[in-house]
Amino acid sequence: MINQFRTLSLVNLLLLVAFAFFMRIAIFINLPEKFDFEFLEPYTKLLVQIPSASALAPIVNVTIAVMLVIIQAVLFNTIVNRHNLLGKPTYLPALLYVTTSGLFLQFLIISPPLICNFILIWIMDKLLKLGKSGNGMMMMFDIGMLIALGTLIYFPFIVLLVMLWLSLLLYRSFNWREWVSGLIGFLTIFFFLAVFYYWNDNIGQFFQIWKPLVNKFPSSLQINYNDYVVLLPLALIMVLAALQLWENFFRSFISTRKAFQMLFFMFIVSLISFYTKPDFRVYHFLLCVPPGAVLLAYYFSNAKKRWFYESLFAILAISIQYFLFV
To answer: Which InterPro entries does the record associate with it (predicted)?
Structure first.
């Protein structure tokens, strides 16, 4: 499977679609009666009225979700190849994106983080262009607006504001206008939201939006570790990928080094942003899939022993399927 996806061909695109549906066969076989959650944050519903997730038949929900993942995987693959993060064009990023976006049952349905991943992939593309851009101020303004749009869909997306300044530290010399422009772009969207709330005599509710930002980071979490055994093979691959990246780090182009540092920070920021959502669900960690899939793809792109890396991927895929069924 890995060796097949190391090349860029139309056949691999067809295989990717088939593999995406195969990795979700467990939920197609055991469809629940309904899904009950909201697509948008409560403070956005004054602006946009859309049906609840429960209005969709489960089969429609799951089918749309897998199609969205396939589209995201292709877009993601295009961006990784465009910025030459793996050294050669390949379909591995798409393959690893589809694989890791099917880790848990909650990943397999339409959810706010799934929709936000379109925006996250777009932001990733812009951040990877940051070092080559002559006008960083406008780019940061655009990224700030994109983060605001993501926050309207799913509040923890707001924590990605940190990526504005971490990326500037990596890619640009200090320019206070660039440091401020991203925040202005973010505030522009919420300024219009505040005006809308004011017109509807509901400005008090607008100020309630920001309360999760003062939540304390949880000192303990209630975790059923049996539900996360599937992460063990994934963690092993991540460790091997980190070792592989470290081995090649100083032999890589400077732009590639900075790109992987930026993606590492994006992964961490996406991971810890759950604290802004007291009732967060497992699907929150879909936000970690784009930056994490690049690192996984890097390992499989550079691994030498075919029997080992093919076996490792097979173990990962089988583990995911097993735990989805049980």
So the answer is: DUF6427
